[in-house]
Design goal:
Chain A has 349 residues and is α/β, with parallel strands linked by helices. Chain A contains twelve helices and twelve strands. Strand 2 (109-114) of chain A pairs antiparallel with strand 2 (109-114) of chain B, so a sheet runs across the interface. The first copy, chain A, binds a DNA duplex (30 and 30 nucleotides) through helix 1, helix 2 and helix 4.
Amino acid sequence: MPDTPRRADRIPGNRYGNRPTMKDVAARAGVGLKTVSRVVNGEAGVTPETERRVQEAIDALGFRRNDSARVLRKGRTASIGLVLEDLADPFYGPLSRAVEEVARAHGALLINGSSAEDPDREQELVLALCARRVDGLVVIPAGDDHRYLEPELKAGVATVFVDRPPGRIDADVVLSDNYGGARDGVAHLIAHGHRRIGFIGDMPRIHTAAERLRGYQAAMEDAGIPVKDSWMSLGVTDPERVRRAAEEMLADPHPVTAIFTGNNRVTVTVIRVLAQHDRGVALVGFDDIELADLLQPGVTVVAQDAAALGRTAAERLFRQLDGTLLAPERIELPTRLVTRGSGEVPPAD
Amino acid sequence: MPDTPRRADRIPGNRYGNRPTMKDVAARAGVGLKTVSRVVNGEAGVTPETERRVQEAIDALGFRRNDSARVLRKGRTASIGLVLEDLADPFYGPLSRAVEEVARAHGALLINGSSAEDPDREQELVLALCARRVDGLVVIPAGDDHRYLEPELKAGVATVFVDRPPGRIDADVVLSDNYGGARDGVAHLIAHGHRRIGFIGDMPRIHTAAERLRGYQAAMEDAGIPVKDSWMSLGVTDPERVRRAAEEMLADPHPVTAIFTGNNRVTVTVIRVLAQHDRGVALVGFDDIELADLLQPGVTVVAQDAAALGRTAAERLFRQLDGTLLAPERIELPTRLVTRGSGEVPPAD
DNA sequence: TAGAGCCTGGACAACGTTGTCAGAAGCGGG
DNA sequence: CCCGCTTCTGACAACGTTGTCCAGGCTCTA
């Protein structure tokens, strides 16, 4: 056994270290290049004896087909790109997992990246994926102008947007019913007797945030409740500011008796604020959160099915790739109100 | 505006739809092929006027460099592969996010896949990534024999294992101090007066599970407490069986007064069981869980820093790629005991 | 004005694979 | 014994890019 460290084996001059190619395998097996290709791809027309010799050479050399070259030749990469906002957000875990499962079922690999909610970074990522010639893209958009994708769409890159619609281009999109979900959630609070209901959500330039806000306003209007500006806090997302926003709403001489929160991160922060608050304030949050059922009270939420969003989008992507798809479509998945207690707290006054 | 659907634009015969190549751009700009290449790559030696003409042609045609061809030529893909167990597990979100951040800082894309804890699927994925000629691999292993990676390592594919060590090969690995963390967690329970302490964890064939079990046993032995077999439940991971295991431990005439849980999923289930239980049973869990601080009582955990694991591994990977690294190394990151209440409950009897 | 040197641009090969096509070998029937 | 057929094999071009190298035109100096 040699005692030189493993990595010293590398021959720096050689690309890919020093990987054997089909040519090397062919030489060693004493056959033609194409015969190796046939064996590697399981094509018919190779004598068992020849195949054995080739296989032996492959194993001896540790040959692995170079898919880059293959892709160049064949024009299909068998990979799709996923651009999302933040992998660490628990909402995107199941979504990306679902996309991956579908990709796997179609024999494709998943390449992904996070935009960190930055439109430039989104574009950079998408174009990098296109340069890789991914067969298709699933995009959770951060920006609101996707005209930069026009050449790609024209060139046949299958594209599906998820969670938020694309801006200024026409493409498939799979959404949750943000408007309806929020409206139902707020209506639920109203049905339990609340009239002064706060809303804390993200910047309205984000489609989901705008829709949820619209749902809130619709529910209030349906109930004939005029909304005070001080009940709405928009564009607030980092914990410290959410905390302050919630506390201000509660400190009012005529405080809100319930809060509707626009996404999971906001919900968690508001739960913390309410935990230190003695008066019973009702809470309904958009997006489910883990352990919501174990808190006191359990957290009532409007849940979206992240996995279903991902699955639906990916399946549609592969139908585009099959060529069986026609015009771009907008698919909206329903949300589900999960009552656990916090949304059923009666108004304090 | 034409009313034919967008996708009808595709010319099916052409690879990649009908993407323009550098040749097309060159023809349109009336320059040589290499000049286009120079402009695209920002190389020196092109007159501003020529550059302008080329750029114009690029924009007009919607040209994007084909990275497959580039990779073939250059030998570096500027991408790394990440193989993990389950993207939907909240533990892996931050980890994979951290890997992605480091990759991004080095200008690399991340290709990932889930093994679903299946060794065959892990191997399949890893080899698919190698066929893509990723520059490096970050692997959270599912299997315990990685000799199939030997040709890859020899060929210079940088490889770092995370969370669990590789089997039967020598390679870099970044781990949490599972043994020490579990020992400390259990010692914490003992320090609070517990002597009958249960352990519920995953199959000991999984390295982390085995180490945590070892930590449990060490702490008990250090305290001179003989462990009864009925206190240990191994290889139990799906919620229903965890529930049964916990209930059995508590139903014993001489029941455990505290439980140490071996991972986040087990912890969550046990929390549910304890919530329906009136006697105060102490709990310390391995892995932090969200909202653990808001439960009654707060959940005391041995927290690992998933992001740090990912970051450390990825950084080490890129140091391998820089060529500044020598022998494989084993890096162990410390865990942190976070006391929140559930671990400080005194024994019931 | 001639020669040296620099700058710009382009022709060409190579990367590793696959598709096309044609040649070689084997075999059976007339 | 030859022809035609089938079966297997390999030579060659092509995929789109980049590295090498050389040619031509220009500027600068003597």
